[in-house]
TrEMBL record:
Species annotation: Salinicola rhizosphaerae
Pfam families to which the protein is assigned, alphabetical: RmlD_sub_bind
Annotated cofactor note: Binds 1 Mg(2+) ion per monomer.
Name under which the protein is recorded: dTDP-4-dehydrorhamnose reductase
Gene3D superfamilies to which the protein is assigned, alphabetical: NAD(P)-binding Rossmann-like Domain
Top-level taxon of origin: Bacteria
RmlD-like substrate binding domain location: 64-278
Enzyme Commission designation: 1.1.1.133
UniProt keywords, alphabetically: NADP, Oxidoreductase
Reactions mediated catalytically: dTDP-beta-L-rhamnose + NADP(+) = dTDP-4-dehydro-beta-L-rhamnose + NADPH + H(+)
Protein's job: Catalyzes the reduction of dTDP-6-deoxy-L-lyxo-4-hexulose to yield dTDP-L-rhamnose.
Length: 309
């Protein structure tokens, strides 16, 4: 059995990985303790260490970004010493200025923000580790766990709050469940001796504006609620224009992960529909938390695409 030590076990990606492997007998994700060092890792003797992404460095407090970078560096040092592969997931927001076309793996992020440059520096160090994976991800959405963007959007809409999102920021929303499935496939192949280390991209299909994504969430949520006999006055949407001349495009080219691992991008619309089905089923049975602080304005996509209230 493949054993993978899971940093940040409360993260939405960590929860998706644990859920996806709950009934499998060939791979296991072990939630790590809050403090990890080489001695603690050696006791577990994992086949790999996985670090979920810091969802939106541009919106985080600088101290949180630096703490995340320090954490990854410490894990990198330990993994090198022990000869253990390290998998680091990274938000696409490091591509601060976007690109006209799809961004492939050879392109290095060059953010202006000093805190984000700190993360780029960590990535350069990690690439010198002979057994590493840097997995750049589109903005993750999920229903539970830290940085679960969709959960925050739903909570705000259900409270009737007005959401604002830029219509001139183009991105590829990415299901946390699809990423979990992709990561499992990668880890299984690497454990079987694939040896194809390096940088890869994974995001949802169909680039859309941040405003369009939030609008689709609102429309589908209303449809799903009506389907279970619920009439809810959802919050309104407001489109923003933040890139006045040319829309900022942050679209990842995901061909390499398909060519090397056979992992296909998934339709974010389909994944979103499945998640809303699950959410509405819980809502209909009284299983959701609609308390005032159930969600907040901490959208992990980026400071620009956050649904501001």
């Amino acid at each position: 059995m493949v054993k993978c030590l899971l940093s940040q076990p409360a993260h939405c990606l960590s929860l998706a990985l644990l859920d996806a492997t709950a009934t499998r007998g060939d791979i296991e994700f072990l939630p790590a303790a809050s403090t990890l060092d080489a001695a603690a890792i050696a006791v577990v003797a994992p086949d790999a260490i996985l670090v979920p992404p810091l969802s939106d460095p541009a919106r985080c407090e600088p101290a949180a970004v630096y703490a995340h970078a320090d954490h990854v560096e410490a894990l990198l040092e330990a993994s090198r010493a022990l000869g253990i592969p390290l998998v680091w997931c990274v938000s696409d927001t490091l591509f601060e200025e976007g690109a006209e076309g799809a961004i492939d793996e050879r392109v290095m992020p060059r953010p202006r923000d000093e805190t984000m440059r700190r993360l780029v520096g960590v990535g350069e160090q990690l690439r010198r580790h002979p057994q590493h994976i840097v997995l750049r991800l589109g903005p993750l959405f999920g229903l539970e766990g830290e940085d679960a963007w969709l959960a925050d959007l739903i909570d705000s809409l259900m409270r009737g709050e007005t959401l604002r999102a830029p219509q001139d920021l183009v991105l590829c929303p990415t299901s946390v469940k699809a990423v979990a499935r992709g990561l499992i496939g990668m880890l299984m192949q690497l454990d079987s001796g694939a040896g194809v280390w390096g940088t890869y991209h994974l995001s949802g299909t169909e680039p859309v504006s941040a405003y369009t994504f939030v609008s689709v969430v609102r429309t589908q949520l209303a449809t799903h609620l009506e389907g279970v006999g619920q009439q809810v006055a959802l919050g309104a949407l407001q489109a923003l224009n933040q890139h006045h001349d040319v829309p900022l495009r942050r679209v990842l080219d995901c061909r390499r992960i398909l060519d090397v691992f056979g992992i296909h991008q998934k339709s974010w619309r389909l994944e979103l529909g499945l998640m809303l089905d699950a959410w509405c089923e819980r809502y209909d049975t009284g299983g959701t938390d609609d308390s005032p602080d159930a969600g907040d304005d901490d959208n992990p996509g980026s400071n620009e695409e956050a649904a501001d209230t």
